[in-house]
Design brief:
The complex is a heterodimer of chains A (273) and B (520).
Chain A: H1 3-32, H2 50-61, H3 63-68, H4 70-90, H5 100-106, H6 109-129, H7 131-136, H8 139-160, H9 170-182, H10 193-208, H11 216-219, H12 224-227, H13 250-257
Helix pairs in contact in A: 1-10, 4-5, 4-6, 6-8, 8-10
Chain B: H1 10-15, H2 57-62, H3 73-87, H4 89-97, H5 109-114, H6 121-136, H7 138-143, H8 154-163, H9 172-176, H10 183-196, H11 202-213, H12 222-240, E1 255-258, H13 269-283, E2 287-288, H14 306-323, E3 327-330, H15 334-348, E4 362-363, H16 364-374, E5 389-391, H17 395-400, H18 409-421, H19 452-473, E6 477-480, H20 483-492, E7 503-505, H21 506-513
Parallel strand pairs in B: 1-2, 1-3, 3-4, 5-6, 6-7
The chains are: A mainly alpha (273), B mainly alpha (520).
Bound molecules: iron/sulfur cluster (3 copies).
Chain lengths: 273, 520
Amino acid sequence: MSGLTLFFGLFFYLALAIFLVGFLGKIWKYAFTPAPLRIPQTPAPVHAAGVPVRMFQEVVFFKSLFRGNKLLWIGGYLFHLGLLFILVEHLRFIIAPTSSVLNTLVTYDLYSGFVLLGALTFLLILRVAIDRHLYISLASDYALLLLLMAVASSGLLSRFWDGGHIRMNLPQVKAFIAGLVTFNNIGSVPTNKLFLIHFSLVLILLIYFPFSKLMHAGGLFFSPTRNQVDNPREKRWATPWVKTRPTATLPALEMQQQQAPAAAPVQEPAAEG
Amino acid sequence: MAEPAAEKTLLDVVTEADTDKNAKGPELTGEINVPRVEEGRIVKGKLSGAKPHAAKPEIMTALGFPDTLVDNWEEAAVKRLGELLEKYKSLQVYLDICVRCGSCTDKCQFFLGSGDPNNMPVARAELLRRVYKKYFTTEGKLFGKLAGARKLDLKLLGDWYAYFHQCSQCRRCSVFCPYGIDTAEISMAAREIMDSIGLGQKYCDMTIGKLLEIGNNLGMNPKALTNTLESIEEDIEEEDGVPVKLPLDVEGADILLVTPSADFFASPHVESLIGYAKVFHQAGVSWTMSSLASEAGNFGMFVGNYTLMQKAAMRIRNAIEQIKPKRLIVGECGHAWRIAYSFWNTLIGPFDSLDPNYPAPQHICEYTLDLVKRGAIKLNKEANDEFTVTFHDSCNVARASRMGSRPGGQFTIPRELIKASCNKYVEMDPATTMEKTFCCGGGGGLLTDEIMETRIAGAMPRMQTLHAVMESDGVNFMALICAICKAQFTKIMPKYGVPMEVAGGVHQLVGRAIELGAKE
Ligand code: SF4
Ligand code: SF4
Ligand code: SF4
């Protein structure tokens, strides 16, 4: 095993480990942080069965984003769609023999790549072109967009250009990746520079994932305004961290009720609710 | 020679206000224009000085908070944030997952009305998120400013104080956020942190204090309450010739009504109280109000303090134990209905002693509409012929609660009731009603005069849409089901050149239309 293979092999496992531990750790935290009160954003499903339907509309159609901003929805939707297709198409590097559905899909992978890159560019333009979006954008927001664009471009480019003297050898890539994933028979890492760049960028993305806003991918499912049932009158929800209720102050209040007559209220009444 | 100024305390520095006392609303055109954020990233927000008065030491200590800004405020604030992160899933998830997509940026009435970029919901949330990143996340520790992390300094604390008191916790932003991020949850947490380090807002904290000590936000004791109710009874009898009663503390009454104390004598609130009383009278039921529970409102929610909210709500439980009613009904109030509907069962439930055949609690609109449908009371629509009516969905009712058994009942039930009470009803722009409704601009503890500039800004979108239907359809009555909405609009409308009589209650219409007297 060459030094380069060892390096990229270790890099891969390290990135994967950080990603998995980080991601699952965050999900664990989201899942087990208590939700003291019922706060679904209404109108909300009144039966538990409605919650998956609501989630489905959000996850599959980005319903709220659609209501909020159509341009953003187009950009965001195309990006995620492109990403989904690309990810599925990348399965060809892992599973063998590839299924026929996958084979058909793979023939369109260039489209997915361009949609992905185009959508990212569009999102970047929106970020700088709309005054409000420009105002709220952080350096890390741009960095992430650029990183994703670099991943997409390097991947796409490898389809057109040999990356400098050594042609991308797909079977070799496949042997390497499949070996890594199955912990078995790891081939030597392809030395094509474009591949190495693409591969490294993806691993960096994986490492950054759990520490960044990319966690929206898991966090969305734990959003109390979206995943709660609207039935607080029918079903009592107990706050996990409240063990005892404050004691009734009844005696003091009874005294108050028998208080001597008092003058007008102490404050202007206009301001109450 | 001028006297040497007393030395400014830290608290003075943080809460120092600079706001336009004579602010007026912009000209009404019927259009809501999204303001441009011109100055880019370095802008000093237009409302950065619109800060409410700070709570006095005695108010703070009564609620168990430090009397003034503590010396180790930075450390204490971070510590409190850490505790809240472990207690509130909403806070933990929402601080993590915002992608700054920008979908919410043009949705907040306070941004639309002021053009202050820090009033964009995501920018408001970032004020807290920066601190979260700095002290609690790997990303912030590694990349610092590049990832938006920032140390909590006095300047930022001042911005917290300004901008978390420019959020009415209306949840409009959450409707348009792909992840449902609710900035209301974030501003509640921020206020709780500020209270915990001795930086309280006077209006909210004083109101909670009065509620806990005396029993209602107005600070009206039982005797004063009795007198007020008696004089309202006299007024009704004089006007309608019918002895409609407003009973107080009647043990064993079937229905306990809990209503915002503003109903007892603010205007137009009291008209709705008269409306409820006539409904009960005509339905022939035994009902009562309670001096223990003489307030449906509960500002404990506004300051994000669970314990205070629960303590305040306990009065209602006490009243149930004392009166032993079969049913529990809540009067017209937005945030109060949210707390009653969504939180009471958790805070002070279960309501085992009540009749299980009725929802507990029940909204007065649910109750009245049911009577109308069953023919138990009759409404004469002609009595309201002088009005062309529209309806403002109160945000807390629209986005944080429900009426009836189906989702969206909170929209249909009040509308049906209004339409049963009058002949002319007009909807406002559908992009601004139901779950997309705008806040009146005074909710969430902002209903205090020193931040009038904020309140005027926040009312802008609703005032524009109201103006549009006033022009096109001659609307002259905007029906409300929220005590804060009523108080806010009566005060704000004149600042926009609209007469304050345009604001009224749903049960004000019912009260005028109801046919009193013997039933056939
Ligand atoms: S819509 Fe949601 S995710 Fe997008 S910027 Fe606003 S809060 Fe963040
Ligand atoms: S909750 Fe309402 S007031 Fe607060 S930021 Fe969101 S839209 Fe604005
Ligand atoms: S006052 Fe009315 S509109 Fe404003 S926050 Fe409360 S319920 Fe909403």
